[in-house]
Every structure is written in C-alpha cells, then in structure tokens.
Amino acid sequence: MRLVRPALAGVCALAAAAAGAPSASPSLPTFTDITEKAGIRFRLTNGSPEKNYIFEAKGGGVCLLDYDGDGRLDIFFVNGSTLEDIQKGVVHPNALYHANGDGTYTDVAQQAGVGGGGWGMGCTVGDYDNDGRPDLYVTGVNGNTLFHNEGNGRFTDVTDEAGLRSGRWSTSAAFVDYDRDGRLDLYVANNIEVDVRHSPLSFPGPDCSYRGTRVMCGPTGLPGAQDALYHNEGDGKFRDVTVPAGVLEKVPRYGLGVAVGDYDNDGWPDLYVANDSVPSYLYHNERNGTFREVGLMAGVAVSDDGMEQAGMGTDFGDYDNDGWLDLTKSNFSFQTSNLYHNEKDGRFSERAFASGLARASLPLVRWGTKFLDYDDDGWPDVIVAAGHVYPYLTKNPQGGEQYEQRRILLRNRGDGTFEDVSERSGAGILERRCSRGLATGDLDNDGDLDVVVVNMDGTPSVLRNDGGNARHWLELRLRGTRSNRMGLGARVTLRAGAVQQVREVTTAGSIFSASDARGSGAGGGRDPLAQRHRADAAEPAGGPAAGGRRGPRRAIVAAIAGGSCPRVPVRF
Asked: Is the pLDDT of residue 407 over 50?
C-alpha cells in the first residue's frame, strides 16, 4: 500500500474514536430535509394508489455514487411504473442528480443514458471492470439493467452483453468479490414469479385480508423466485454460478435486502439475505468458490422464539466495537427488528430487547436500515425508514398502525444499548412518509453522514446531518490494484486509546439501495488536538494464489486536529 494524491477513488470514511463510551446526555445532531432547496423534484411512481399487487407496494431504490469523479456524491433514484403504463410502453424515467457543488443538484439522467425503460425496483454500485469508475446495476420487476460508466458523463446499457438481464422480479443486489480474484461479482435477490406485461389491471384475487379489509395477496402462497449469483469473468461478461456456488434455493423464497460482510473474520466475504415471511439466509463463504447456508445454525434465520419474520432491510456493522461484525434486520409491524450480536464462534445471539432496539421498532413496518455513526463518536448507531404497505390505513388507521410513518434513529450508548433519539433529532426524522429505500453518505463532504430516503408515490427525503461533525473524523480513500479497484471488502481498523473501530468497505446493505462506500465506516471523539491515531487497512483480496487470511499492507498514522481530519488516499 502506498499513499497517492487525493484523486477520485472508492472511499471509506473513518474517524478518531474517543477512549470510552459516548456522553450520556449529549447535544445531538439533527436532520434537516433539504430536498426542495436542493432542487430535487423526482417523484416515485410505483403502481396504483390502492396497491392491488404486492410488487406495487415495494421498491423505491436510491444509490449514492460519485459517477463523474469530481469528489461530490451524486444521487440516483430508481423509478417504477404502473400496470397500465408498462403494458402501453409509457416510461417513468429514473433520475440521476448531479451535485453542482453549491448544495443543489441537476437531473442529468437522460443525457447520462440512465433513464431506463422498465419497472425499476432497486440499484447497487460497483466498478465491475476495474476501470476506476463506478457502474450501476438496476433491478426491476420485469428485467434488470447494467449501466457501464463510460467516464465522459455517460453510461451505456451493456446488460445483454454482460448476461445480466434476468427475467425475474429482482429486489436488492450487491457487488462482492466472493472468490477474491480481484473482480466484483454480483448477488441478486429475487422475490416472486410475476409477469407485469400480462397481469390484469384490476384487483386479481383471490380474496386476501388484513384486519378484516381486503388487500393484496402475498408473499405467502405465491411462487417464490430463485436468487442468483453471477461470477465476473473479467471480459465484460458474467456467468450464472448459482448452482455450483451452492446458493441454489431448494424452495425459492422471497428475497428483499442483501448485506455483505466477513462475519467470522476469515478474510472472505459472506452474504446475508433478508427474506419476507420465511427464514432468512446466511451464506458462509467456504473459500473455494462455494457458499454454505448456515442461517438456522448461526441463529439469524428466524426470530429468537423460532418464528418466521417478514425480513426487509439488513446491514452488517460492529456496533459494540469488539472487532466482529454484528447484524441487524428490519421486519413487518409487530415483529421487532433484529439485532444479532456476533458471539465470535459462528453464532449470533438476539440482543434486540436487551439493547432497546425492539421497543423502538413497534408498531412500524420497517424497510431500509443502516448502521451509521451519525454523531462521529466512534459507536455505530442505527437508522430505519418505515411505511406501511396497505394504503387503506391512511383513512382508517387500526391498532396503532398508520400508512405514513416516521423514521427511527437509535443512538448507540456505547454499553451495548441504544437510545431512541428520534424525537430529539429534527423534523427530517419525525416527518411521516411511506418510506422504502434508504442510503447514507456524506453528501456535503463536511465529515458527517447524511441520509437519503425514498418515499412511495412521492418525492424523496434528502436529510442533511447538522452538527454530526463536531468531533474528529478521518477519511481514507481506498484504491485497489491487485484487489478490485473500489476496494469493496477491504477492512479498516482504527485504534485510538482504548477504542478499536472496525469497518468494512461496501455499498451493500439496507434495501433496494446502495450507500456511499465512504459511509461504511465513521466515528469520532473529542480527543486532544493533534493526537495521533493508528489505522490498519486490510486489502480485500490478494489474487487467486494468495489464499488464507488477509493482512494489513501498511499502518497509517494520521495527525488529528480541530473538528476534521486529513483525507488520506490509500492504494493497495
């Protein structure tokens, strides 16, 4: 690893940690909705207002990426459609908002060639050809699209050449170099078998109900769609390795969120898939090009009392700073969110109730969820987007359930518990919308993580973090040479005093969405000025001949001063 000039690169933001737990009664940052001020006019179209089909109630993806390498995060929104319009060929375009550098954005989707033409659902980001430019993969109800970044402000649809069109209803996807050959592969979660081009426009039946009211059917009782794993062949093409890689589902389930993380610290990326209304999957990487599904044995497939849950969003993160990745999953109303603590022996224990996560999650229907250190205190917090699936609750709320719901922000106390600080965190958190996808990233490059949330049948919420950068922070720009160029899968360990932070670089997690790789790690503390901190960057891959565990290529020591830290580019 050698230091390079601060050119464009995949990024992992870290910060200097305080030696101890966070303050019990701090002055908290707040989130401000700047969507209108920023000039973002995108509006999600996704089915009929009544939501007669299950796929009309899902979707709403957002991806954060610096597609043109100017150092500022741009925002890509995935648009859906309606049955009537998709069958008539009417297009509801995606939006790509270019950051102008003054807090405003301009939609350049059409000029950039990413307007799309189908019924979109979600998206993910990765540099699949290692040319130094982030590419986009968009999932959909009636087909997926791979957009190659040409480097001139434009993308090219290379889906068919790459072999990634698919014909299933795909939800979330994740780029991951699962075999450590230096090229990003692709996992795609699929939901149910559906043909929107030939579906009846009216309510399909049979009669399904919720609290005595007729609603859409599913997912239980509908045919699930097989997930897929695609191997990057290195020539612009991908090969479907679902069967030989060991991720073929015996009975296809209803995939939604996908997270990537090395949960057993063996140097190889593992996969977690949140499934709707059935057990979820944890795929352990066997280090030979195959995976083994261990969800039940690891304790992350069902609830603590053995019940199947309607899994939605999910994310890996080391919430207790013990060096082992933990796991969170959001679920349907009156099914508490999960907080799975990594026991370091291949198993997880449920800590949702003990941590305070469970109480805060009822009775909301939760979707996008991310670990993020929003106040830069060195301890990963949790944010959740929420919104119901049954629009009739707008006029007839029942049992405490409403269609439009507030977000949840849980502050990590540093002692294994979380405090629900939603009421103290500004109008951006308390705003009631019917939300789905959620992504995090430092939109204004001020050292704290901002949040973008997609809302059903409406405009998104771009939430600026105000005050989260009062502590120190460090940004590491990771650029792979032998590993994949974006450094996805790299692990950064930062030590400051008694606290050690571990973050892995990824764009995966949440649901339907991709966060900025810089947001994979964050944290901070009120250390003495100019205190020095040690950070080790472990490369994600050493090529197929390397094998074994990854190790730090070089320790980085950064001098911390004031309320910010130097941006340190790092090349593997």
From this structure: yes
